[in-house]
Target: 6,7-dimethyl-8-ribityllumazine synthase
Amino acid sequence: MNGMRVLIVESRFYEEITDGLVKGAVKELSAQGVGYKRLIVPGILEIPAAVRYAVRAMELRATDERYAGYIALGCAIRGETDHYEHVCRLAMDGLQTLTLDFSLAVGNGILTVHNRPQAMERCLPERRNFGGQAARACLRMIDIKRELSLIPK
Model:
């Protein structure tokens, strides 16, 4: 997988949680020899837009950057209002729509949890390592695209 690059789009709303997710994802990518670029967005709701911007920049040849896949990292913690439900649904639906409409290889590491302890359990590489899991999912989807001849082998 040398020479391949992945775009990590990370929401910094809960920085400590995102740091854990990024650490796990980067460790997995580095172990596989995959390059990456990190792009920071304010919250999970902005992740799909940032992925679309990256795809559009490649379509327009406005950049020399080429990404084989995308990793979405961030967290939403349930609060006292229904805002959580809307943000989670829109972020997840946005990523799924992009994945299907543009045949993207996406690893979804957006945590949607009830409380901070749940988030910490899932974000840390030495625990459930959802960042690493998202990176592995992205890399597997890239492999599937290769197997189906959507990208060169």
Notes: The chain has a mean pLDDT of 94.
